[in-house]
From TrEMBL:
Transmembrane segments: none
GO CC terms in record: cytosol
Chain ranges of the Exonuclease domain: 6-173
Protein name, entry field: DNA-directed DNA polymerase
NCBIfam families cross-referenced by the UniProt entry: dnaq
SMART domains cross-referenced by the UniProt entry: EXOIII
Species for this entry: Vibrio diazotrophicus
Length: 204
C-alpha cells in the first residue's frame, strides 16, 4: 500500500479561480517525497497566451513581463506530466489544484494515474486548534521553517510538503506506524466526532 510519505506535492499559481471560466495556470511548483525526504523538485512559469490582471500580478509577484518569455502551458505541462509519473498527489486545498491539473493536462491529451489527497482537509482534522487552516497560518502554528515567500508555486509546495510530513509524524507519535496515503485520505473525509475512533482502531 503506498505510503503517505512518498508522494508528489504540487501547487499552481493561476490567472483566476476556475478553468471553466477560461483561467489558466501561470506557474507550477512541485516536490517529490520518497520516504519523507524531498528527492526532486519542479518549478516553471508558463505563458497562458493572454495578459494577467494587475491583481494577480500583485498577489503572486508574477508579472506579464516574466510570462512573456516563459514557455507555453502545453510545453510545461507535458514535462510536468512526466515528473508526476504515477505518484499520488498532495495539494493544499486540493480541489483547486486538481481542477487546473486536470484542465491543463486534458488540453494536451495527458492523464495521470495517482490519486489526490488534500493537506487542508487533513489539517482540519489533525490540527483542529489552529487559528485558521490557510497554509501560512498552519506553517506558523506548527513552527515550520520557511523563507517567508507565499503565493509562489515552489515555495508553497515546499511548505505544504513540510506540513504534510509533520502531520504524518504526529500520527506516528500517536501510535499509527507508517500511515498509508489511503489512511490520510480517510482522515480527510472522517467526521470530526468520529476521528478519535478511527485513530484508536488504527493504532498498532
Amino acid at each position: 500500500m503506498p505510503q503517505a510519505s512518498s508522494v508528489v506535492v504540487l501547487d499552481f499559481e493561476t490567472t483566476g479561480l476556475s478553468p471553466n471560466l477560461g483561467d489558466r495556470a501561470i506557474e507550477i511548483g512541485a516536490v517529490k517525497l520518497v520516504d519523507g525526504e524531498i528527492v526532486d523538485s519542479f518549478q516553471q512559469l508558463m505563458n497562458p497566451g493572454f495578459r494577467v490582471s494587475s491583481f494577480i500580478e500583485s498577489y503572486t509577484g508574477i508579472t506579464n513581463n516574466m510570462l512573456r518569455t516563459a514557455p507555453s502551458c502545453d510545453e510545461v505541462m507535458a514535462a510536468f506530466s512526466e515528473f508526476i509519473a504515477d505518484e499520488n498527489l498532495i495539494a493544499h486545498n486540493a480541489s483547486f489544484d486538481k481542477r487546473f491539473l486536470d484542465a491543463e493536462l486534458e488540453r494536451i491529451n495527458c492523464s495521470y494515474s495517482g490519486e489526490f489527497a488534500c493537506s487542508l482537509l487533513v489539517a482540519r482534522r489533525l490540527i483542529p486548534d489552529a487559528p485558521s487552516h490557510k497554509l501560512g497560518e498552519l506553517v506558523r502554528y506548527k513552527n515550520i521553517e520557511n523563507n517567508g515567500v507565499f503565493h509562489r508555486a515552489l515555495a508553497d509546495a515546499q511548505m505544504t510538503a513540510h506540513l504534510w510530513l509533520r502531520m504524518v509524524e504526529d500520527l506516528e507519535r500517536a501510535g499509527i506506524v507508517k500511515p498509508s496515503f489511503e489512511f490520510m485520505q480517510t482522515v480527510s473525509k472522517t467526521a470530526k466526532g468520529k476521528l478519535n475512533l478511527l485513530l484508536a482502531r488504527s493504532r498498532v
